[in-house]
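Sequence and structure are kept together here, with a separate record for every protein. A complete record is shown below as an example:
=====
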Amino acid sequence: MKRVLFISCIFLAFWFQAPAQDHETQNEFGLSGQIRPRFELRSGNFRPLSKDEKPAALITNRFRINLDYRHSDILKMEFSIQEVGIWGQHAPVQGLNPAGNDLTLFEGWVDLKIYKGLRTIIGRQTVSLDDERLFGVSDWAPGGRSHDAISVFYSKNKVKVSSFFAFNQNYAALYGNNLNNPSGNLYSPDGAQPYKLMQTLWMEYKPSDIIKSSFLFSNVGYQHAVSSTEHRPVYDQQTTGLNFFLNKASTIVALTGYYQFGDNPLGIHTAAFLLSGKISEQLGTIFSATAGMDYISGNRYGRTANSNHAFQTLFGTNHKFYGDMDYFYSGNMEGNVGLINTYLAAGLDLSEKAKLNVIGYMFHSPSAIYRDNEKLNNDLGKEVDLKFSLKVSQFVDLSAGVSGYFTSGSLLYLEKIGNARSFQSYGWLSLNVHPEFISIKF
């Protein structure tokens, strides 16, 4: 009893004295969630369907719970737990799951202040750089994308510097999931991150409110071991480049250039590049227009080569750049022929909460395509996407889209699809509910 009274007295003393020591709010806590079901009618996205194939219809779902904590500017922590799946794939009565719990950790990190503008983030985290062309969250995908990494950030005045370091192992694939395994350092990407090592440096310089430029250098180490005893080398591939962004009144300009070298995941010497440019103009109060082009180098198809010229878009949000039907860099495009993507887009603000967007793509191969001794046309087809979004309330968003793809002979040859329809389509409807349950300061 005396011990209980003693502890109670200490607690009360601390409770009454703490506010007197520091009247400023130091702690913040937030609890939020997200439920995002999306109905999809897949009648030719990811790849063309042949005439005897039936469309696929399904509802995917994302469920997330996010917990955020901050203590002044000294410490931040975030945990994001998610479950993704397809409606109906779980039994009505949940039984034992031999694969483990369906809930996974999307993010779980701690952000520590080192000194003034210098910070570090340790743990499972998203990496979003520039316009997410090479490093993005891929929020369109039900599961998104995150990395297990250590990040170091520095920010002062007009300069930002970020660096990311990752070292991955996959004991489940090679070592019988024995966490106490005493030997072996081989890595397999099967069911895991696609790389073993990653080191990335990103720097941004923003001389004014309307102009900013950035530099990126990234090294990614790939290893694909098939057993715990057969040694496989680590192949390092480097990517470096510059970005320029102008956002002035009604005009937006973005220019990008990257060069890729080293060895690709198969150990083949790489010399590849990506060039991109776009301009957007706000025409009046409710209408906007965008024009742009991407040039991504590739390999000749149907001819042997000793080097690789196919640029790898690393961990970018590809759905954002190359069409909603995901034929390129998200789907199963064969041949690594690269891509020339020319597009025009128009946006219409129907109201403060409703928007309508339409974008048309013309896809071509920058590399030659051979069928035996015949050189095929480099036309890879055309796509049109129509998208509608509505902000129903503070925590509820509704969006929908329809897409059509006009295939070409070269595309169907690369995809090895016989008896295919010349027109492919895709439609979707999504509800995004993202409430903030608790937000307190103490």
User: Anything to note?
Assistant: The chain is about 5% helix and 50% strand. The chain has a mean pLDDT of 92. The domain at 23-89+101-178+186-441 is CATH 2.40.160.100 (Porin).
